[in-house]
Amino acid sequence: MSCRSRPQLPCLGKLLWGAVIRSARVTAAEADRCAVLSGRCCPFSNSAADQSENGAEISNFQPPADSHHDWVGPPDRFSNLRPIKFYSLKNESKLKQQLRKLRIDTQNWNQKFWTDQNITFNKEKEMFIHTRLKAKGIGLRDEEGRKNTLSAEEMAEFYKSFLDTNYKKHVNYNKEWYKRNFTITWLMGRAVLQSAWRKLRWRKEVRG
Amino acid sequence: MYSALCRLLPGRLGMCVFETLQKVTIIKRFPKVIVHHYRSGKHEWLTFQHFTLPKCQYVTKANKGLYQRAKPKAEPSASSFPEKQPLINDETVLRSVQQIPAIMPHPSSLQESEGSTTGKTPMAEVAEDKMTAQDIREAKQWKEVKVQLPDLPGIYARLSKIKLTALVATTASAGFAMAPVPFDLSCFLLATIGTGLASCAANSINQFFEVPFDSNMNRTKNRPLVRGQISPLHAVSFAVACSVPGIALLTLGVNPLTGALGAFNIFLYTCCYTPMKRLSILNTWVGSVVGAIPPVMGWTAATGTVGVGALLLGGLLYSWQFPHFNALSWNLREDYSRGGYRMMSVTHPLLCKQVALRHCIALIGLSTLCPVFDVTTWTFPLISLPINLYISYLGYRFYRDSNRSSARKLFFCSLWHLPMLLLLMLTCKKSLFTNEGAAHHKAEAEVQA
What we know:
heterodimer, A: mainly alpha, two-stranded antiparallel sheet, B: mainly alpha, Tetracycline Repressor, domain 2
């Protein structure tokens, strides 16, 4: 994917709007940074399709082009998961490509699940607090403007009901996560062995 | 100049204010540095001046576009950005690098960008400012997944939960020391090290399984796999590298029974307890068995069989787990709920409190049984009564009050209670010479006769 070939239109667009529109900002910044920081094409999988499917914020960060490793970022503010920019060579093997694609897919899937989970949790928690306070006849905020809270015992009811309602969802997530985790690690192991084997063969050829 | 320009375009007035406000916001976060900025910036419209420490260059952008070009600081490829508050030099240089390309893609064509700078709307400038400040902060926090050798010990320590492992190894060595056989130093060391290695392996696999869950809990979000310091494969390799020598050491260096118990414990912890945490509250009971096995391993390492003493010691550890864990989990209910963990404290709070209290009292009972089975003298239940009563009292307070502070008190008490109990037990160990010594003399006398 050639970053330089990205059109300059996003830049102009930004000039015209001047507003903080996320996608424009991202693509423009990406294009600019790509062009500036990499003499050659950036090897990091950074396409919008790869990194985000669900409105998760795409990070503007572009690892330095001479790096040969993955880069891990700060925790996402919704899912608390750390995004990874995966490194890929142009002529990577099929196995490595499969591994990288699986990791990206798992990252997106995890991101979606946890964002959804955390947002739902917080929303339902707020609703629970509101209804309880209403039932008690207490307002949402006290005289000093601070938010009124419920006691730990009362909150515990909500925590229990949240767990119970989402039980099946959690069980299914668990199964899927374990499967993916094992597959990724298995593929990683195979990839490492494959690289080691290739290196060994190359050395033999060089010597022999 | 400032006011003139402000008057020229009415929209810009809002932007002046906006920018001023925005600078105020920044000031809040990086007070020491920006104050400097602000003062110098006051005289110039659309200015952000970066005064950097000697290493970097000035980049001053004024309305007329007069500014020095800052050579972008070369990014060291193997560096990892500091996680803490960034130094102003780095922030400033990055800022300048990112500002310029936004106007024109190529850094060498800065002369042309002067013109376009003035042509940009103030909103875009401000937006860019905002964006790059945030991006800089974010960029500071991106790290290369490249393991540096000096970091490895720290990473491995956290991966293997070294403090917990040390406690587990201590309980195993206490089990060994309490066994009614002459003390064999080499066997003792092998058993302790083997158990420690097995514990490292089990903890690593646990963390390998729980990456997304750990990310979402405050207590666990700084673990190595969560932070991406090592890959999952690395963690699994470490676990294998610990478990294989550990179990081999136990099986070949000590005895097969101890090795089998060690392997079983790893399996119980990683394949039963860890998945069960999200399925059923029974995980706590399984986890307690996991905690009870190491002293039994110590005992079997010394004697080669699972005696009553081993079961008693295991029983003491088993009972101890409940006040320890239930109190810990009491204050983490929200995190557990959000993470999808099924713990007694969340789903069955009354049971949680009852079980904790029950097992505190059981500790007294089990301590009393020790001399009955000749593990210790009768001094032990007497001298351990104060600490056992104290933890039972805290267990009762936790049962009655069920609040944050009583839970914390019970948890912290459990942390010192266990080592103290084991120490007291060691001091009250039934001496070999009183028991076997007398029997030995008797046997000798009979033979002579």
